[in-house]
């Protein structure tokens, strides 16, 4: 049947008719006619072929059977790997099994996708335009909790990969967690946090400090006044009711994050994902350079954001080259393994706090937030207030600094 189908495909590509005579001649010229069953078998097939009216349904059956055969093949491969590990750990074999099954699922999704006519696309586009028009410039995505950010972006948009980048101690994790708090508590958006750098308990401490406005140093040491208990209890109450889910497994692969996010979406729904941070992820079996590995990670996160139709905030480190410059404000080329991240991200946000380099700066407590890339909107800068003792970013209020405009 493969020989016969190959002959039909070749003839069709050359705009030649496909019938018993032309197919048999094609196979005969290649010495494959007898192997394909001969002229009599071709005639039998032609007589038993159903009409073209239900071709789409037949193709669907073929796709289903093909996926089932792929599952059988993957199952055999997984079983073989489990029986003969070749030095691999059980975790590595599970990663490979998930990758194989995901490839099958992805190929099935691709088969169901494909071209759409403009006529099919336009209703959704017009509905989106109408929604934006009715919003009158207001937030159409998930509110971040930061006024200037939401003015520039209209909120966190579904399908977007949002990269938050900065040097160590700039507050990447703090900003991402604050946004997660605002989304989950303020807008009741189910939020997943993959914390590969920080244990979940430490993350909970930070959130209690942020939401309860309790000094985080006092909280860590237990040396706080009794009146802080009311603030702690208020924060704990808010957190216990918030749809926030934390996974602090180290070194997760894109396949593992995808599998866990899908499972969480099935069980609880999911509206936002935070990954802290991108360079701590791994790609099992990748023997190429780190840039290639990061490329696969960023591409996978973008694909996941699109598949689940939700925003993903991925934190990223910057190169050390920033430290050698007089002006240490980050630029796009400072992104570590920047090529793939710059290409895949829909939104790139840089955090810069001058006080990290100069403790005597008059701009202490002010963070400069730069939207360096926005695929579907403007770029720009705005300040936020950084309250380090509470691990919290807040909207910048000029009056609080005796100023009337953007701090310089």
Structure description:
With 408 residues, this protein is of the alpha/beta class. It has three domains: 2-49; 53-112; 142-401, Rossmann fold, CATH 3.40.50.300. The protein has 14 helices and nine strands. The chain has a nine-stranded mixed beta sheet, with helices on both faces. Strand 4, helix 13 (290-308) and strand 5 form a beta-alpha-beta unit.
- Mean pLDDT comes to 84
CATH-assigned fold name of the largest domain: Rossmann fold
- Percent of residues in beta strands: 5-15%
Q: Please give the share of residues in helix.
A: 40-55%
Number of helices: 14
Query: Can you identify the CATH class of the largest domain?
Result: Alpha Beta
Q: Largest sheet, order of strands side by side?
A: 3-2-4-5-1-6-7-8-9
- Helices and strands, in order, run as HHHHHHHEHEHHHEHEHEHEEEE
The total beta strand count reads 9
User: CA-to-CA gap between the ends?
Assistant: 74 Å
Low-confidence parts = 401-406
The CATH superfamily title of the largest domain: P-loop containing nucleotide triphosphate hydrolases
Largest sheet features? 9 strands, mixed
Computed over alpha carbons, the radius of gyration is 28 Å
